[in-house]
Amino acid sequence: MIVLGSTSEVAQAFVEKALQEGEKFERIYLFTSNRETTERFARHIDVKFLQQSEIIELDLTKNIDYSRFEQISSGLLFCATGYLGEGTEEGLYDNKNTERIIDINYAKLVPVINYFAHKFENRRSGTIIGLSSVAGERGRQSNFIYGSAKAAFTAYLSGLRNYLFDKKVHVLTVKPGFMATKMTEGLPLNPKLTATPKQAADCIFKAYKKQKNVAYVLPVWGIIMMIIRNIPEFIFKKLKL
């Protein structure tokens, strides 16, 4: 199993869920830009599940040496890589903030997934799970830089799913909605619309086993986003969302 963004609470909860459900992995490759945090998780799954893992350092803001990945073989890729960035007006006009949001959520991430998708295609098997966001379904003034990157990532996953379908590789797009994680800590989230990492992991694992194409962690988000998508633009542009 390959885990991109292995410091993510959702990614770690999914790994634990899969191991608890009896999934067998010869090795789990934990891609991370934070070795110390990832080492703690690697020790945890070693002690609790006797699961071997290998930490691969990956910083999407720097040049990537793909030759380091040549020997990595897997049938499952889980991508929880994400960066919310600064959504205020100051952040909007900070080009370094904008570039970081776009690089981590899309521009530098897609080539990494493509690298492994090619391996899956050649083997004609495997599953790719990508965590996108409901923020990508319509641009809203509060976070449209992040939302636009997630919109691009959602479109990428859709196209990849279409392309890999007859190659026997499945692609699952996950749209979590509000999540109680480090990335959203301090934000005023509605508890009725907010999922825990464990809830997300349970939902994603079920969707993975059923080979769903798109999954909302909390079903209510499917309804909410259907309404938002259908608000006429002349009304929507006046809303404070």
Automatic annotation (TrEMBL):
Gene3D superfamilies: NAD(P)-binding Rossmann-like Domain. The chain crosses the membrane at residues 214-231. Keywords: Membrane, Oxidoreductase, Transmembrane, Transmembrane helix. GO terms for molecular function: oxidoreductase activity. InterPro entries: NAD(P)-bd_dom_sf, SDR_fam. It holds the Pfam family adh_short. It comes from the Bacteria. PANTHER family: OXIDOREDUCTASE-RELATED (PTHR43391:SF94), RETINOL DEHYDROGENASE-RELATED (PTHR43391). Belongs to the short-chain dehydrogenases/reductases (SDR) family. This is SDR family NAD(P)-dependent oxidoreductase. It comes from Chryseobacterium endophyticum.
